[in-house]
Amino acid sequence: MNRSRARATTGADMALIEAEGLEKRYPGTDFAAVAGIGFRVERGEAFGFLGPNGAGKSSTMRMLACVSQPSGGSLRILGEDPVVHGRALRARLGVVPQDDALDLQLTVRENLIVYGLYFGLSLKRMRAKSAELLEFAQLADKAGERVEHLSGGMRRRLTIARSLVNDPEILLLDEPTTGLDPQARHILWDRLFRLKSAGVTLILTTHYMDEAEQLCDRLVIMDKGLIADEGTPRELIDRHVTREVLELRFPPGEQEQAAEKLGGDVEVLPDRLLCYADDGDEVLTRVTEVGLRPLTALVRRATLEDVFLRLTGRSLTD
């Protein structure tokens, strides 16, 4: 995929996206979906937005896709103001929406060709381009099949292939693997790794913490329209939780008493205790020393999910 245009129009040391005090408010309401956030996305990295429902991720992604104007603050994409240059910028972006929105009655190849024509690409060019993209998406053998006959994973790969018809410099992915089985998710991860290796900058939202750890060089965790923290997955884990977590399960009604006996950094959940420590086995030894007899005990490494829940809470939000 040709990246010469990106290098020619944007300095190599310039952030591809810069936001400062970015806000999004919707008409007729005082509610701020995005309440003044700042971040930078560097060339060639994979940058993630994590957060519970209603955190402001989708509103932020719509502004980055140049389809929703900011209500306040500043936003620069590829060095340009999206309010002024939105149409030109959209031609340089690829968007993978949460909904595939494919034409089920067209074939796999026809979906790519028709989409390419929207970008002003010639039919001759799109016939060649569609073959290249189908090979990349591992769908060459399905080129003549109608989309309605594809599995969910195949449709998702086709949606990603479709987003690449214009050789985008930035690819925006909204929940790229939601609803897919583990095999399909790993195939998609491999395709996204290849795109990143080819120089495409990835920006994604995801509810899967393992996906964020796998794909993102850096990420922000959003809550209530604000950024709770930013960093690499490893930095966030080191900053907010310990190296390991000991999970203990006790008979109903014994959690609180067990937590009091153990002391230390312990989180009481309805079904288990989470004991945060640099050495989970050492805490497990102390469990038996204080006379506790858990039903099950598990020592695991701390994950981004632990960070996410500590920063945003465990209660459901609408």
Beta fraction of the residues?
Answer: 15-25%
Q: H/E order of the elements?
A: HEEEHEHEHHHEHEHEEHEHEEHEH
Q: What is the spatial order of strands in the main beta sheet?
A: 5-6-7-3-8-9
| C-alpha termini separation | 41 Å
In round numbers, the mean pLDDT is 91
How much is the radius of gyration in Å? 23 Å
Class by SSE composition: alpha/beta
Unreliable stretches covering 5 or more consecutive residues: 1-12
Would you identify the CATH architecture of the largest domain?
Answer: 3-Layer(aba) Sandwich
Within CATH, the superfamily of the largest domain carries the name P-loop containing nucleotide triphosphate hydrolases
Tally the beta strands.
13
CATH fold description of the largest domain: Rossmann fold
What about the largest sheet? 6 strands, mixed
Helix amount: 25-40%
Under the CATH scheme, which class of the largest domain? Alpha Beta
Family: Belongs to the ABC transporter superfamily.
InterPro entries: AAA+_ATPase (IPR003593), ABC_transporter-like_ATP-bd (IPR003439), ABC_transporter-like_CS (IPR017871), ABC_transporter_ATP-binding (IPR050763), P-loop_NTPase (IPR027417)
Membrane topology: Peripheral membrane protein
Main location: membrane
SSE diagram, text form:
Blueprint: H1 4-9, E1 17-25, E2 32-41, E3 46-50, H2 57-64, E4 72-77, H3 82-90, E5 93-96, H4 108-118, H5 123-136, H6 152-162, E6 170-174, H7 182-197, E7 201-205, H8 209-215, E8 218-223, E9 226-231, H9 233-240, E10 244-249, H10 255-262, E11 266-268, E12 273-277, H11 280-289, E13 296-301, H12 304-312
Parallel strand pairs: 3-7, 3-8, 5-6, 6-7
Antiparallel strand pairs: 1-2, 1-4, 8-9, 10-12, 10-13, 11-12
Helix pairs in contact: 4-5, 6-7, 9-12
InterPro entries: AAA+_ATPase, ABC_transporter-like_ATP-bd, ABC_transporter-like_CS, ABC_transporter_ATP-binding, P-loop_NTPase
Domain ABC transporter: 17-249
Protein name: ABC transporter ATP-binding protein
